[in-house]
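FORM 12-B: Structure-to-Sequence Request
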C-alpha cells in the first residue's frame, strides 16, 4: 500500500529562486508539448508518443537557443512532457476535458523530482541541480543542494520513493512523496456506524456521537470577520488607484493581498485539521462498516441561502478522508443511494413521512416515535449498511 507524505520546505533565498525557475521549466515543457501535439494534428499527423517527444526535447537542448535547459534537471521537462501526453490520452478516453495551456499567473508552480536521485536525511532533502555554480569552482556545491525540511524524521530513510513532487501553495514550498507500507490484515469486528453529515452539525453518528460545526466557534468567526475587513480594504485600494478603465496594482495592494492569502490558508488549515481529528476518531472505533449518504452537493450549492455554509463544511474533504482511512484499516466503506429517504424514514415502524420540511428538526411519527431527524438519519444509514453487509 502506497501512502503519501507531504512536508513543508524551508529554502533560503537562492534555493527559493531556483525552485521557481524549476517550476517555470515544467510549465514551459508542458505548454511546448501541447503546442507540438496541436500543430501535428492540424498537419494531419497522428498522436505523438511521449517517448518520441522526449527524444525531440533532448535534441532541442543541444541547440544554442535552448541551451539554458541544461542548467536544470532533465527529469523536470521530460516528466512534464509525459504529463501533457497523459492529459491528451485521458481526453481521448472521455475521462477529462481538453488539456489547456498553463498560465504563469494562474497555474500552481510545481515540478517533478527523479525518485532515484532524491535523497533524504533527518531534516533535509537533496534535489538535483538545485544549485548551479555557473562553471565556477565551488567546494560546497553539494551542500547547497540540500534544502531544510520543516519537520524532523517525518519521511523514512533508505526506502523507495514514488512520484516525488515539489509544489508552491502561494506562501510555502512543499514536497510530497509516496512510500510503500505493509497492508493492514486485521479486520475490525465492532458494530458498524452510519454517519449523517449536515450544516447544523458536521456529523451525527448512529452510536450517539455528535461532532459540532467548526465554523460556529469563536476562533473561526473572528478570523472570518478579519477576512471581510481585509477584502474591503483591498477593494478600496484598487478603486483608489484606478487609472481610467484599468486598475493599478501597487506594492501596498500586493502586501494586503498576501495578508489575505495567509488568512485564507489559516482558515483552510483549521477546517482540514478538524476534519482529520473527526475522521481519525471515527476510524479508531474500528467499526465493521461506515455508511455515508451520497449528497447532491452541486445542487445544494445552487441555493444562495445555503451555498456559503455548505462550502465551509468541506463535505468532499470529509468523504475523501473517511474513504481512504477506511481502506487503510480494512473497514467496509458504503455509500448510500442519493434517493434513499434517510431523514423521512421512521426507524421504528418504517413509515415514510413525505411532507417533512428542512425546518422540521424533530421527527414525529404516527407510531409515537419522537426523535431528532439527524440522529434518525444516521440510524437508518446504519441499518442500510447492515442490509448490504
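FORM 12-B RESPONSE
SEQUENCE OUT:
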Amino acid at each position: 500500500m502506497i501512502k503519501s507524505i507531504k512536508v513543508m520546505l524551508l529554502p533560503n533565498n537562492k534555493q527559493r529562486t531556483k525552485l521557481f525557475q524549476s517550476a517555470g521549466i515544467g510549465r514551459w515543457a508542458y505548454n511546448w508539448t501541447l503546442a507540438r501535439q496541436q500543430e501535428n494534428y492540424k498537419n494531419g499527423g497522428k498522436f505523438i508518443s511521449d517517448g518520441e517527444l522526449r527524444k525531440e526535447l533532448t535534441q532541442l537542448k543541444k541547440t544554442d537557443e535552448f541551451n539554458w535547459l541544461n542548467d536544470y534537471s532533465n527529469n523536470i521537462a521530460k516528466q512534464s512532457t509525459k504529463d501533457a501526453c497523459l492529459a491528451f490520452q485521458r481526453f481521448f478516453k472521455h475521462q477529462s476535458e481538453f488539456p489547456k495551456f498553463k498560465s504563469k499567473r494562474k497555474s500552481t508552480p510545481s515540478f517533478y523530482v527523479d525518485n532515484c536521485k532524491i535523497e533524504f536525511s533527518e531534516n533535509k532533502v537533496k534535489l538535483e541541480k538545485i544549485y548551479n555554480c555557473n562553471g565556477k569552482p565551488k567546494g560546497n556545491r553539494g551542500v547547497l543542494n540540500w534544502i531544510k525540511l520543516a519537520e524532523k524524521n517525518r519521511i523514512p530513510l533508505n526506502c523507495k520513493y514514488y512520484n516525488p513532487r515539489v509544489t508552491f501553495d502561494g506562501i510555502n514550498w512543499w514536497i510530497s512523496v509516496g512510500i510503500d507500507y505493509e497492508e493492514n490484515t486485521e479486520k475490525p469486528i465492532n458494530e458498524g456506524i452510519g454517519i449523517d453529515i449536515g450544516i447544523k452539525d458536521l456529523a451525527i453518528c448512529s452510536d450517539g456521537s455528535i461532532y459540532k460545526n467548526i465554523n460556529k466557534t469563536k476562533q473561526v468567526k473572528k478570523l472570518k470577520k478579519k477576512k471581510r475587513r481585509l477584502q474591503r480594504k483591498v477593494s478600496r485600494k484598487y478603486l483608489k488607484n484606478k487609472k481610467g478603465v484599468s486598475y493599478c496594482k501597487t506594492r501596498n495592494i500586493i502586501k494586503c493581498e498576501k495578508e489575505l492569502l495567509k488568512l485564507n490558508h489559516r482558515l483552510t488549515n483549521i477546517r482540514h485539521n478538524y476534519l482529520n481529528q473527526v475522521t481519525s476518531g471515527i476510524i479508531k472505533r474500528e467499526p465493521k462498516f461506515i455508511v455515508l449518504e451520497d449528497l447532491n452537493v452541486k445542487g445544494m450549492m445552487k441555493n444562495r441561502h445555503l451555498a456559503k455554509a455548505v462550502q465551509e463544511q468541506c463535505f468532499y474533504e470529509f468523504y475523501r478522508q473517511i474513504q481512504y482511512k477506511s481502506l487503510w484499516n480494512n473497514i467496509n466503506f458504503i455509500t448510500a443511494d442519493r434517493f434513499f429517504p434517510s431523514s423521512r424514514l421512521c426507524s421504528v415502524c418504517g413509515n415514510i413521512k413525505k411532507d417533512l420540511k428542512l425546518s422540521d428538526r424533530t421527527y414525529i411519527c404516527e407510531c409515537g416515535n419522537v426523535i431528532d431527524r439527524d440522529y434518525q438519519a444516521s440510524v437508518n444509514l446504519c441499518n442500510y449498511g447492515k442490509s448490504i453487509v
